[in-house]
Amino acid sequence: MASNKKNGEATGLDVEHELPSAESEEQSARAGSSEVEGELETLRAEKAGYLDRLARLQAEFDNFRKRSVKEQQDFRDYALAEALKSLLPILDSVDRAVKTNAASVEDFRSGIELIDKQFHDALLKLGVEPVPAAGEVFDPNLHQAVQMVDTDEVEDHHVIDELQRGYRIKDRLLRPAMVRVANNPKK
């Protein structure tokens, strides 16, 4: 069955594949190389896009942060200005009291009492309230004990009197009340 190939005759050992030539390998390598380079170029473009986007986002965030800081400062300045506006009429009253020649001590006292009321009203408008103290149970969160007094007249650990008023704004303590506290030695 094996026949020789003569003048175009087929042999029994036909090879269906021919080995690739050096030229076709080179073309194949160039095609693969151009595909890789194209993919690499695409990835480089994507990277540049991501870096540009990142830079823009960082700049936007930095601008947002600066704008927020400025808005907070503006709000504080506005709030302070509003608080001071409510205190200026009291200062005006004190200035008038100092300049006046009161006919009697009682007239001067009544003027000072009016200024005191005006000042407390302004604080209430700002949300500042006095801390209750005299007669209350001692609370270290609201009161600062400066003296313990041995006494049977007031219940143990109750505030006898207030030496300096404390204040709070909403739930925040601005200043504790300075108080004297009863110490009932029998208990």
List descriptors.
alpha+beta, Nucleotide Exchange Factor Grpe, Chain A, domain 2, 3-stranded antiparallel sheet, 3-stranded mixed sheet, 53% helix, disordered N terminus
Estimate the global geometry from the Cα principal axes.
elongated
Radius of gyration: 46 Å
CATH fold title of the domain at 130-187 = Nucleotide Exchange Factor Grpe, Chain A, domain 2
- Examine the secondary-structure arrangement and name the CATH architecture of the domain at 130-187: Roll
In CATH, what is the class of the domain at 130-187?
Mainly Beta
C-alpha end-to-end distance: 128 Å
Mean pLDDT: 81
The total beta strand count reads 6
Unreliable segments of 5+ consecutive residues = 1-6
> Level of helix content?
40-55%
Question: What's the arrangement of strands in the largest beta sheet?
Answer: 1-4-5
Characterize the main sheet: 3 strands, antiparallel
Strand content: 15-25%
The oligomerization state is single chain
